């Protein structure tokens, strides 16, 4: 019985993920989800308790689903190949036809950036954890002079630009651009970081 | 009288921009805008005709306001300093307290990526024009071996990651990270592009 309950919850959350991908996490409602699943609204309400709790559950579920795909990457030897594999997993995740509206976590970053509350808190926790994981992956092979958070910032930049290039511009070159950008970042990470060039604002003091 | 009409329209669109920044372009409604401005809903409806037409007008208005700020940048000599100034203008635009919800164009990229129609068309046109302008700005000083669209992709990556770092992570280092990433991109753009490193997927054939 516990297993069946777990399966039902997974099925509900997969459907919620699909709807959140299309309509945004904000567009998700217990009523809409119940209708999509032909379940009773009161039953779903009893399950999640509130729209906010449902939104947090969907974020956690998206993170768990992405985590399942990333497991193979985490088992790979630490080094540039792990970062390369991470990018491929991310791009495949963003392009997954099961979620035709793209990555609901990335979408939520733009919906909840200025909405204080438990959904934003859950989102920020996920994003900080992602930043820390990427920083650790770079830290395993980068020159020790680097702040790994700088490299993690630039890695996230590539994934966000891929999302934009493939979903907004619908550019056929999106993957090639992202991969080239990552190769450049990996090559730089292996060298000591440069001093700020003359005329550029100093990152440390501005 | 024509001037007064123009001023009224500007005032309406500035308020719409502020609301779209907070609630998203999708959250904008003629009724909500009328209430915020203490104008009649029928008057605003006569002005814009439909929610979609209002959304397109707001996108164009955002682009025009950003364009006003970029004018000084475009007058600067072609070269790395123009790209540096562009990034500063972008970051100031994203942080403008008049639009506490961030850049409505960037937000719209995540709302309308999968919604076909005139709003998405207007958005894609703006984004393609931006991509072309950035590519031209890099083309003015980059090594001729580069595809300037690769560099424009990486420039957009930095602006999107800045938006994320400052608005989601609220990281104090966001500007420093973005500036360092841009300096690295400028330095690379001046050198011939590298061949794909062994073991990496070839961008041209994958």
Task: Write a concise synopsis of the structure shown.
The structure is a homodimer of 206-residue chains. Chain A has 206 residues and is mainly α.
3D architecture notes:
The structure is a homodimer of 206-residue chains. By secondary structure, chain A is an all-alpha fold. Chain A has nine helices and no strands. The first copy, chain A, is elongated. The termini of chain A are far apart. At the A-B interface, helix 6, helix 7, helix 8 and helix 9 of A face helix 6, helix 7, helix 8 and helix 9 of B.
Q: Characterize the biggest β-sheet of chain A.
A: none
Radius of gyration of chain A: 19 Å
Give the integer mean of the pLDDT values of chain A: 88
The portion of residues assigned to helices of chain A is over 70%
CATH-wise, what's the superfamily of chain A? Tetracycline Repressor, domain 2
Task: Please identify the top-level CATH class of chain A.
Answer: Mainly Alpha
Distance between the termini of chain A: 59 Å
Which features does this protein show?
9 helices; homodimer; 206 residues; mainly alpha
Task: List strands and helices in order, with pairings.
2 copies of one chain form a homodimer.
Chain A: H1 2-23, H2 30-37, H3 41-48, H4 51-75, H5 80-95, H6 104-111, H7 118-139, H8 148-167, H9 174-190
Helix pairs in contact in A: 1-4, 2-3, 4-5, 4-7, 5-8, 5-9, 7-8, 8-9
């Amino acid at each position: 019985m516990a297993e069946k309950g777990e399966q039902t919850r997974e099925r509900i959350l997969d459907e919620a993920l699909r709807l959140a991908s299309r309509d945004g996490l904000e567009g998700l409602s217990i009523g809409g989800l119940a209708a999509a699943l032909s379940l009773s609204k009161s039953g779903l309400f009893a399950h999640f308790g509130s729209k906010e709790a449902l939104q947090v559950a969907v974020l956690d579920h998206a993170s768990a689903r992405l985590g399942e795909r990333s497991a193979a990457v985490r088992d790979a030897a630490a080094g540039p190949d792990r970062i390369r594999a991470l990018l491929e997993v991310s791009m495949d995740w963003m392009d997954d036809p099961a979620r035709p509206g793209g990555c609901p976590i990335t979408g939520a970053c733009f919906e909840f950036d200025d909405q204080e509350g438990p959904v934003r808190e859950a989102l920020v926790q996920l994003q900080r954890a992602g930043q820390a994981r990427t920083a650790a992956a770079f830290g395993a092979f980068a020159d020790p002079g680097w702040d790994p958070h700088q490299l993690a910032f630039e890695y996230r930049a590539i994934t966000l630009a891929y999302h934009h290039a493939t979903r907004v511009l619908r550019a056929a070159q999106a993957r090639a651009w992202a991969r080239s950008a990552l190769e450049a970042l990996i090559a730089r990470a292996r060298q000591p970081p440069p001093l700020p060039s003359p005329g550029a604002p100093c990152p440390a003091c501005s």
